[in-house]
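Chain A, query sequence.
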Amino acid sequence: MATTVDQWFGEDGDGEVELPVDLDSNAPYILAAHPDRWTVDVEGRRVLPDLIQIALQRGSSHLEHIGEMARLREQYERERWTLILPAVYAQYTGKQGDRYLKDVPGRDGPVHVAVWSQTFPGSSVIVPDLEASRKFHAWLVESGTIPAPQPHVLRAMQVQAKRNINRYAPDEDRNPASKDKADYWREVVKVLDEVLNPKPVEDKAPAPAPAKKTPAAAKPKADS
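Chain A, predicted structure.
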């Protein structure tokens, strides 16, 4: 049975009623990952997928014609993209019906934003929860939803990071901004090296339990 955009996202959003935000309405979107697109989370010492957003305009001639996402999926998968449907978020949270996309009332219709982003009535400001976003992105790899990065991709990222170091290093002694950027790229190189060459986990055998002391046998009394 064909899966429509409305079935993916639902017509009622998250069910919350809010004052409009000061933003124009936008199309719902799905996330997609590519095996060559990764980013380094220096604070978390990990590599995360660099996802893109694919807008799905309701009422577009393309969607009206196909009535489903099969052709869109085929188009992107030919170019090695993995589409991440909003319903995948329910597997992450363990709560049926959860989606990574929500909509809030905007100036001229619904504004679609990620569930880890906060909006404010009457304001155009969107504040993302970066840590929540990073946790979900990390889970996509840990759960096998998308494949882990290949070593040759990480090595290519290292080469680019080292070039960035060489770009900023000559000015770092006299330019604090250049030093900050050079130091950042040095950390990127370190994280990539840690991912490429993980330290083996030592299996520590549990310490043997102390031997139980058996009470000494009572000495027989001498006959009087």
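Residues 1-5, 7-13, 61-67 have pLDDT under 50 and may be disordered. The two ends are 100 Å apart (CA to CA).
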